[in-house]
Amino acid sequence: MNDVFDTHLQELRRGTVVLACLQLLRYPGYGYGLLQDLERLGFTTDANTLYPLLRRLEKQGHLTSEWNTEEARPRKFYRTSATGISLADALTSEWTALSATISSLTPGSPTLATEEN
Q: What are the residue boundaries of the Transcription regulator PadR N-terminal domain, all occurrences included (predicted)?
């Protein structure tokens, strides 16, 4: 792809990573596992972006965390809090509405065809 497209795609995806994290962390997960899940789902994210995002969401009260020290290497597990779930639900509703609106703007869509006549 070209650089212009990549720049715009990155801007488009930036906000969706927040929503994806809130949705995925409804079940406890740790940072590296979350990075892998995001990558598998098409949300390519750098660790230097993800970890500050997780800390910010935790500071805002949208995530909770706890350390698991039962394994050889301690891991910090994150989980979406009740306020984070409310935020994720609201953002998902907005995303659905925006997606429908964008779809209606596509040339040849029923909405545009009606307005053009």
A: 24-84
**pTM for this prediction:** 0.83
Which token pair is 77?
Answer: 């597990």
What residues contact residue 21 under an 8 Å CB cut-off, 6+ apart? 34, 38, 50, 53, 54, 57, 63
| Residue 84, in any domain of the structure | yes
Distance CA 34, CA 77 (A): 10
CA dist 81 and 89 (Å) reads: 12
Cα distances (angstroms) measured from residue 110 to each of 99, 101, 102, 113: 15, 12, 12, 5
DSSP E strands, 1-117: 29-30, 63-68, 75-80
pLDDT tens profile 4-55: 998 888 888 888 999 999 999 999 999 999 999 999 998 888 999 999 999 9
